[in-house]
């Protein structure tokens, strides 16, 4: 493994495509690297218990998962795996925080500052906004209220040892389905449209610098609306950051007291939740825990593979070829040149969907050179093929743009 640094201080790690990449960083590489309010109603009555779905979920080795996919057209689950398993919610709890603020009043009745906070909290997963509501509205009492209002069975406030850590709220896949069913089927129209409208505008880069378009957002074409969660990682692409999400300090290894409802607060967590398809046909909830030390790019890739394996009625899947990448700080650009604008930065080692490829500016990482560039439709830009984990410059089987 060779470690090099660009002129602007960005560190890049190289691995040989398919084996070990030798060589040091050339000057050409530097340009590639980063830089009267409605009244809320009760939660929907649970439909009769569905028979166990035929589980298709492909859970990567070492990953602990809780999965539920609910088809609103048939009123049945198409996927159920560890649906009652409790996970620390990370930012998925922001759904409950927002609904608590909106309970018995519509979005138009909110003070401008609160509405702005909810917009940022739901679109960009803004932690500061969530912390403000948490502190002002009773902290764990928010969770208690929403448990009663929505009839949640596995959801609980953070442990007494961490009362201020809203991201340590316990949540399950089946309770998350209940939350979305309330939003879609029982919430006043103004609240439903406001909350889901924000989730449809989820930004690729969250306010803390993490790429949050994994899982549902990466596996299916729009329409979708998502609320994601992540916790226990040190960097998530988009921008350089050393902060962890879920309102917790870096390196946290605390656990709840042992017991039947103990929730793991140590392993890195990555969750994808939301609705997919025309008419918001399917509700998807995927909660995952990963081995300690797992990189964000690896977890991002594993959650993507798991989500793509699911039976999600009404979902449209993007065309292309999924290919692994290597390197840290690799940029996606508007055109196939290092001089074109940067769209975003890839999480290190993440798997990407390649739609097509074309020749562009030659890129050199001695002893390698490559003038082929891959178009990434989900990012709306190009990356040099030199960072794809394949031995050839032109990827076999991928069409020319």
UniProtKB/TrEMBL annotation:
Keywords of the record, alphabetical order, are: Signal
UniProt key word Methyltransferase: no
What InterPro entries does the record point to? Answer: Beta-lactam/transpept-like (IPR012338), TAT_signal (IPR006311)
Taxonomically, the superkingdom here is: Bacteria
Which first-to-last residue range defines the signal peptide?
Answer: 1-42
Gene3D superfamilies given in the database record: DD-peptidase/beta-lactamase superfamily
Which portions of this protein are annotated as coiled-coil regions? Answer: none
Keyword field contains Signal = yes
What is this protein's record name?
Lipoprotein
């Amino acid at each position: 493994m060779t470690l090099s640094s660009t002129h602007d201080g960005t560190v890049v790690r190289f691995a040989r495509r398919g084996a070990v990449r030798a060589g040091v960083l050339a000057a050409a590489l530097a340009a590639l690297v980063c830089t009267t309010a409605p009244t809320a109603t009760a939660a929907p009555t649970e439909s009769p218990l569905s028979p166990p779905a035929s589980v298709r979920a492909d859970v990567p080795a070492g990953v602990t998962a809780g999965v539920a996919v609910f088809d609103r057209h048939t009123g049945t689950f198409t996927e159920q795996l560890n649906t009652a398993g409790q996970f620390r919610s990370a930012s998925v709890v922001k759904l409950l925080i927002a609904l608590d603020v909106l309970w018995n009043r519509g979005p138009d009745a909110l003070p401008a500052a609160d509405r702005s906070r909810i917009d940022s909290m739901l679109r960009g997963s803004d932690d500061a906004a969530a912390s403000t509501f948490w502190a002002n509205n009773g902290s764990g009492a928010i969770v208690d209220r929403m448990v009663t209002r929505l009839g949640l069975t596995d959801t609980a406030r953070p442990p007494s040892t961490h009362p201020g850590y809203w991201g340590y709220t316990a949540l399950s896949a089946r309770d998350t389905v209940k939350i979305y069913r309330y939003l879609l089927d029982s919430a006043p129209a103004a609240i439903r449209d406001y909350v889901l409208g924000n989730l449809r505008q989820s930004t690729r880069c969250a306010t803390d610098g993490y790429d949050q378009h994994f899982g549902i957002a990466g596996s299916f074409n729009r329409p979708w609306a998502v609320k994601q969660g992540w916790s226990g990682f040190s960097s998530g692409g988009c921008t350089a950051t050393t902060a962890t999400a879920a309102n917790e300090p870096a390196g946290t290894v605390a656990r709840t007291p042992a017991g039947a409802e103990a929730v793991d607060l140590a392993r890195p967590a990555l969750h994808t939740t939301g609705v997919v398809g025309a008419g918001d046909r399917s509700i998807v909830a995927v909660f995952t825990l990963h081995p300690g030390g797992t990189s964000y790019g690896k977890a991002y890739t594993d959650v993507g593979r798991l989500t793509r394996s699911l039976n999600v009625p009404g979902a449209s899947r993007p065309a292309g070829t999924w290919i692994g990448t290597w390197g840290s700080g690799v940029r996606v650009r508007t055109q196939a040149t290092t001089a074109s604008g940067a769209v975003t930065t890839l999480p290190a080692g993440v798997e990407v969907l390649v739609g097509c490829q074309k020749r562009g500016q030659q890129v050199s990482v001695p002893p390698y050179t490559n003038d082929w560039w891959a178009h990434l439709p989900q990012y709306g830009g190009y990356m040099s093929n030199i960072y794809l984990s394949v031995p050839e410059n032109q990827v076999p089987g991928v069409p020319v743009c």
